[in-house]
Amino acid sequence: MNIPLSSQLQPDTGGAFLAEAFGHSLQAHLPFGKKLEGVRFAVKDVFDIAGTRTGAGNPVWLSGNPVANKHAAAVERLLSDGATFVGKTLTDELTYSLAGINAHYGVPLNPASPDRLPGGSSSGSVAAVAAGLADIALGTDCGGSVRLPASYCGVWGMRPTHGRLSGHGCITLAHSFDTVGWFANTLEHLEQTFCALAHAETTSMPATFLTLNDDGINSLLDPTVGDAFSALKNQQTDFLSVTTALDLTAWAAAFRILQASEAWMEHGLWVTQHADELGADIRQRFNIAANVTTTQVRAAQEVRIAAIRELNQILDNQHKVIVIPTVPTPAPLLSADSTQVDDIRMRSQHMLCIAGLAGLPQLSMPWIQINGAPVGLSIIGGRGCDEIVLHAAHKLQAKITD
Fold first, then answer.
1. Residue 33 confidence (pLDDT)
2. What is the model's pLDDT at position 376?
């Protein structure tokens, strides 16, 4: 069956969409009982779309990449469940950023707070959903590239358990961290998308909500975010507080080493040949990645193993989920200098590496506004407990909207 690309979108959509996608059409075999019929979806430009080139946010990569002869597995799953493809979206170069800044294509508009960054690397996808141009949008999450933009733009976003979904036909930055992720305008669409991508069903299994009484986490939060989270915890009498002392500084450092090592293994040859074609910030990260040593990797793996053990002790059964602010602050202002952006990026990595290091599912939901800018609230579950995280989100949504 032929599924035409929606013609309603125009290139003046705040930079979320790539012009190449317009006028393209997709094909898929549609079974009976389509869960996503009538749902519009956009796709980050790291997923293959048959008949187009995948650009990964870099024009040289785009020109040197062959035309895809089939859709990425995640795209095919959405089409098969009846969703309508509406466009391919901008990404930070090779997905190696959290800011949403692309040296070649610019910065997509943050529809929720136009004077602030949208977050990356799934910047175009989150902007498309936040602007109402798509109901759902595929992204990828390695170090937080779905969770952070979801928080910055005030939409729903999910990183599933690592390895739960097929990444076939999708560019990878760091193989032991990368997941297919997605944004949605509602929790129902978020959940329906998971069921389509994971060939899964919803659950009604209840969850126990945990909060972490951890000085390290509290010190990362902007005071306004910390105050809002304290108020939430005080309002929810069924939240259980767990005292922890997570070494998030060591965890984030280990994440950066392992991500860099894997990124160089994946893309080092191409980067060596085309370094001058990269934006300065991305080139700098790959320069650091090129010099990661085996000794550093071994030490980082030991930190990762310890982190997994510690989180397994906290989430000691599949009914428990952690509630935590997604990131410590609203999105940086477009006028922020590099020092401010880097500070927010580093503090965010400290929080995002919790689920990332252990390969855990994490969902970010709209929560509060600070000076007109969104900040998301997250639920982190045990490995493989994505359905429980989604069910817990229904309960938490009801709690915070009462």
1. 56
2. 98
